[in-house]
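Re: Re: token formats

Sure, here are both.
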Amino acid sequence: MDWLSLAGIMLGVFAIVFGNFLEGGTFAALINIPAAIIVFGGTFAAVLVQTPYVVIKDFLVRAFWLFFPPKYSLEDLLEDLCQWAQAARREGFIALEQIAKIEHSLLARKGLHLLADGQGPEAIRASLELDMYKQEDRGLQSAHVFDSLGGYAPTIGIIGAILGLMQALGTLQNPEAIGPGIATAFVATVYGLASANFIFLPLGQRMKHLVKNEYLFNELTIEGLVAIAEGEHPNSIRYRYEVLRRAEN
């Protein structure tokens, strides 16, 4: 996770803890293990019921993006495309078969294989765009998992508060225990609202931003590969790249 996102989460937690302190509360009053189990356990359970296994599996993989965001260097991509174009013009499309073996991007690797197989520009574009749209859809579904967590957490927090109130009202014979019991019950509501608005929903938006960057990178990759299939000069590819980049910005 980049420092800005981490700082935002830490600032949100600090705001709650410090605000509670200014109102006369204590840090210990915000710590409640049963409430945490109810809220977070119940929230994740609800999302597991709702979400297909394949989406959860992909979500767990893409969640690492939040800690180690993928680096998409458009300048490096342009250099690769120009080198591939030069190799194709100098040695023919069959030379791209060897380059594909060492290419890390699955989309670019597939495109290079299609070029080496002699596929036309439109066939290459259609095949790669289908993969690009599927990849984007998987990314958005992973981001939607965070949105679902943010949607369920406040409701589960209310359930936790109700359970806590039930326990507190069960001690009516001991009036001194009612006040602290009710205060503890509402900790579950704090957990639900805070986790939704400071963690889950912001991380969902962060994930969508990363998916958008991936989509842009893939779109430029496809345009470059199609340009190679059309026999364009590397300088022409550079010009097309600049035009597309200005359009995206």
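Second one below.
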Amino acid sequence: MASNDPKAQSAATSAAAKIKKEEKISQIRGIKNAFFVIIACAICGVCIFLFLMGNPSNFEGGDPANGHPLNLAGTVYKGGFIVPILMTLLLTVITLSIERWIALSSASGKGNTAKFVAAIKADLAANNIDAAMKRCKDQKGSVASVVYNTLVKYKEMDANTVLSKEQKLTTLRNEVEEATALEMPSLSQNLPILATLTTLGTLVGLLGTVMGMIKSFQALANSGSPDSTELSTGISEALVNTAFGIATGAFAVISYNFFTNKIDNLSYAIDEIGFSIVATFAATH
């Protein structure tokens, strides 16, 4: 027998709303605050610069300040204080790229997204909503989450006898948009930082290049014969920073475009299934 107690009904409604809210929480996990990543990468970059590249064994006479570099690590050390900054940017790009790879791999789900989309469309064509919902639970990921939440609303609208057909279709479209809007911030999280580093890495590298060339011209401008040591140090600093800046900017561009393309593919899949769900409801009701 159904309870007529208003408090009991209110509690039941609140519990149902809580369950529904929990179902709609995005399952994608990632680094929420990239500031700590940047700080950690800065610490690592400075330590590598001072203790690995600045090791006395990398220089003639064991003198990092005045000794000639004996290997690549010593040559990079001669790039000056811009090198640890560029190293911080490069390590940040690498770390956030790995983080986005893990996050977007979980967002794609367990199986192939294209096959999942085709299977869901087949279930919809057969009006087998329960099978489609089970497939979503097995697939997991962002696409499956959006589809599952929409199918839950689909069944609610199917059982609803109060709303008109147009109202039900509008409700379904709103559900697709709401579920998609919940997933998208998690998918694109930290990508703006990668986009910023595509330019910042190149600019910082250019700054180091200019500073190195200034040192070179200062050596040439000295009275008497040019100081070959100072000249070579300035050129080394310029070339090292150029290489680091280009490497950082190139890696950031490749990473950003790769992950943006993956997000676009997931968005297209969500839009395709969302349209199919709404079209199926419209055709069968």
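Confidence is low (pLDDT under 50) at residues 1-23. The chain is about 80% helix and 0% strand.
- S.
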